[in-house]
Specification:
Blueprint (H helix, E strand, L loop, with lengths): L1 H6 L12 E6 L1 E23 L5 E6 L6 E2 L4 E5 L2 H37 L4 H33 L2 E3 L4 E3 L9 E2 L7 E16 H11 L11 E3 L10 E6 L9 E8 L11 E18 L4 E3 L2 E7 L5 E5 L1 E6 L2 E6 L6 E5 L11 E4 L4
Parallel strand pairs: 1-20
Antiparallel strand pairs: 1-19, 2-9, 2-13, 3-5, 3-8, 4-7, 5-6, 7-9, 9-12, 10-13, 11-12, 13-18, 14-15, 15-16, 15-19, 17-18
Helix pairs in contact: 2-3
Length: 357
């Protein structure tokens, strides 16, 4: 009878196959202090471009959602009216300069005659006033010319910096002007910043744990996208607010990331992991081994006979895919990482170490 029992070691008493699971051994690792926070991507520069003069659009130099370079003409307003105005002002300026020249010649002539006593002083005074009037008229028309030239330049709405443009409600033929509202939004996508609030309590605890005087002392910042996947490029904290939000008791922190492929978008929800300080020896298991219920975190431990035990643990933190265990587990004990839904406390399982055949 004993031999028959050994022959069916991989089946349950009812004859069903023993569940197969994957396990990993709890092991000591050298890990730095870390903390994860939720934040949002925020563009370094973001502007709504508007028209500064009125007219019909006769050209649009971008594809919606596409990249543009600094100085690219995004909208072109029909310039003919503004060119004509500028030409008219320049003609008036030429006439005013001619009058100014004549007035100065008359002033010189009257000055010479008064010096000889040939004419009365009143004629010189009149010539001086006429010369001053002519000079003032020239300056006034020059100002009008500058305004006309500026308005002509406004017929080209240019990108003030390189970035990506959004949707636009205005196409060729549309009448636009200063009251039309935003023509299109331009966002600088590289680099991209991420802003995230940190409670003052967590901030003080993190600084105490890492030994840093400021968040500028932390190492590279790891970013995780909305689907949980890690962002390939590291970031760097470049700003910590000097005030605490009294409503939430949080401090706003900002990190900057290179974004050459435009993967990060303005407003995206992300999470940020900060690391710092010297590595410490800690007991870890893969993050996916840790489960939670109403009582708290636990793992499923498999002993040498393949029997499953539910073990309550003291979870210190999760970092870089590892759960740091502060209590409840010893190094070398095996925890289930795959097939957890097939295992029950007290049941027997067929355990294979992660990475084995």
């Amino acid at each position: 009878m004993l031999g028959a029992g050994c022959a069916v070691a991989q089946t349950t008493q009812a004859g069903a196959p023993v569940p197969a699971v994957v396990v990993a051994a709890a092991e000591e690792m050298q890990l730095t202090q870390s903390a994860r926070f939720v934040g949002r991507a925020v563009a370094v520069q973001k502007v709504d471009l508007r028209a500064r003069v009125s007219g019909f659009v006769d050209g649009r130099g971008f594809a919606e959602g596409g990249l543009v370079a600094e100085g690219d003409v995004l909208f072109r307003i029909e310039p003919e009216e503004y060119k004509a105005t500028l030409a008219q002002v320049e003609a008036s300026l030429a006439a005013a300069k001619a009058s100014e020249t004549l007035a100065n010649l008359e002033l010189a002539r009257q000055t010479e005659l008064v010096a000889k006593g040939a004419v009365a002083q009143s004629l010189l005074d009149k010539a001086q006033a006429e010369a001053a009037r002519a000079s003032a008229e020239v300056r006034g028309i020059m100002a009008q010319r500058d305004v006309a030239a500026l308005n002509l330049s406004y017929t080209e709405v240019k990108a003030p910096f390189a970035g990506r443009v959004g949707l636009s409600s205005f196409d060729v033929g549309a009448l636009i002007g200063p009251d039309s509202g935003p023509l299109v939004t331009l966002v600088r996508t590289d680099p991209m910043t991420v802003e995230f609030p940190v409670t003052e309590r967590d901030l003080l605890a993190y600084r105490a744990a890492t030994g840093g005087d400021s968040l500028g002392d932390v190492g590279p910042v790891q970013l995780y996208l909305a689907d949980g996947s890690p962002y390939a490029l590291p970031g760097k904290v470049d700003f910590s607010d000097v005030t605490v939000d009294v409503g939430t008791d949080t401090v706003l922190i900002r990190a900057v990331f290179a974004n050459p492929d435009g993967l990060l978008r303005d407003g995206s929800l992300v999470s940020v992991e900060l690391t710092g300080g010297a590595p410490d020896p800690v007991l870890t298991v893969p993050q996916q081994a840790v489960q939670r219920d109403l009582t708290g975190p636990y793992v499923l431990v498999v002993d040498s006979a393949g029997v499953v035990e539910q073990r309550r643990i003291d979870l210190a933190r999760v970092t870089a895919g590892h759960a740091v265990i502060a209590g409840g587990l010893a190094a070398g004990e095996r925890v289930i990482t795959e097939g957890i839904n097939k295992a029950r406390p007290g049941a027997t399982v067929n355990a294979a170490l992660a990475g084995e055949g």
